[in-house]
Description:
By secondary structure, the protein is mainly β. Helix content is 5%, strand content 51%.
Amino acid sequence: MKLRTILLSAMLLLLQCPVSLAQQSLTLKDADSLKDRFVSNPRPVKDIGDPHVLAVQGEYFTFATGGPIGFNVWRSTDLVTFTKEKAVKKISWVSGDYWAPEVYPWQGRYVMFFTGREKASGSLRMGVAFSDAPQGPYEDPLGAPLFDFGYAVIDGTLVIGRDGTPYMIYSRDCSENVVNGIHESHLYGVQLAEDLLSTVGEPVLLTQPDVPWETVSGDYRWNEGPYVVEHDGRYYLYYSGNYYASKEYSVGVAVADHPLGPYKKQENNPILSYIETQDGVLVSGPGHNSFFCVGNELFTSYHTHTYTNAPSGNRQVCIDRAGFHADGTAYIIGPTLAPQLRPLADLGLVNHLAVFPHHLLADGDTCQSASSAAYVFAEPEAVFTFDAPVSADMLLIYPAQDSAIRGKVILNDTLTADFAQDAGQKPGQAVCLSFDAVDVSSLRIVFDDGCRAGEVMLIGAAE
């Protein structure tokens, strides 16, 4: 009688749990087998500042402050290796301080805006130069500064309004701007003529250092290094605050409905800042960023101090992903030091979970810099079901802001793999599960209680 009861119980268990008994371990490959898909910060472009990356037909052109005369350009096809060339040899009206070049396509040519110290006045001014090729050489058509409003200006960036009107946003430099005894750099905007060779109307004050994180530098304060990205009809003005040679040099963002404002600063600023642990500073002074797109991915380039314990003008190029939450809040995934995926379009890959943008595990934000958008274990599992199977060979699971993370993934309700990663890894480190390509109909992720996850990416070849 007891044996019959046991057999009946076993049969009922089989009927209730057919999936679990059919599960088998997913065979994982050595993560190094896909190492060519990844790249780490910093990139091998050093002793520079203020990097600006221009993406043109599968090639990347990086311009930056560096060198006493003119500007170099670093060319790359993969953002891993770079070759240096000369983009600007010398500008007639500039005595030195060739700073912050930015290059944009404009009416079939390429335009460079840059800062230089004017010979005649000894003051910093904005210049403009043109070229038929992105790498240059660039020539100055004016033989003089682009404009002169009677004060020092640096860090000019181009903004194109929705109606096609060009604007420039620049920093009124603190070297010649004193407010109530405090040297301050303020951001201004002004309309440009169609040929980009003159201004239209008067400049408008956009932002100034007026929130606590921007004032830790004391009697010299900065809003500088502007760059604008348009998203969903709004203009996101990114800027840097604090002294460039301090670890606190960081990036904030302000938002407006028009290129000339009014701008409102995002409450969770700075959105890109230094990283320090009990062992010391890991990343110092991330700032003066700009943006570029590859496929449907948004990237930001910025500099960090080469020597974290001795911040100076010797800086290096870093590149990370960026984006926007559903509520319009801007984020930057960085600074990172662990390997990150190269641009997916360059690799011929896609993230299949990008079709679930409103899920906290697929909203694009890995929560490297903040955990406000993290997925916290609240239900037994996160489930993603596809309308049609997708081919994938890699799964990346990002913990939120240096958290420990562990759990189990289940593909198609049959293939399973455990994952675990302790806290204290390199910034931006993900759990990487690599396997032979599988047609995936469903993905289930079961997290251990209390885990905080930032993002999951299911990677496969683009069809």
